[in-house]
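How a chain folds remains the central question behind the approach discussed here. The record that follows shows the chain in one-letter code together with its fold in token form:
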Amino acid sequence: MPDDELASLLVFLDEVRPGQAVGHGSWRVSPVSGGANNLLYRATSAGLDLAVKFAIPDARDRAGREHAALSTLRDAGLDVAPVPVLLDRTTYRQPVVVQTWLGGMVLPAPPETDCEWLALIDHLLAIHGVTPERTRQSVHPAVLTMRGAAEGTERIREQLDRIPERERPDDVRWLVDRIDRATFPTWP
């Protein structure tokens, strides 16, 4: 893919921010909803299928971390994630990361079958098997975004509320009970 074709697409997306499927040159672009932390588009052209993410610019360096994580997985020889194509933190209104589009179905809820759970666990095991010794890349640590333990506990509760109470595993109930009884330190 010529760099000028991708650059033209990125300029177009940065300026227009389309809210519905549109064409731009040889590209067909569709916005993808569901994320709260970026503008995400699927862009297809002549056998290319890409995800274009304009990330929120903040201390977390979301675009840089995503590009680094994908590069790390690729460097470790794992074919379990999109392939990183481009990272640009400065040219556009927001940092942008471009990667191959990873097809598949997004589940609206936690896995339901043993097969789905095993696939998820296998995927996580592969990713968590990547150590600094297995790659030349480095990923900066995540930035803590909560301002205290109470806010962290609230975030846990928000996620827990997504799982119907009758379907919560005993281990999760035990862990949440332990969190509720814990005395946490404070930090600035």
Q: What stands out?
A: The two ends are 48 Å apart (CA to CA).
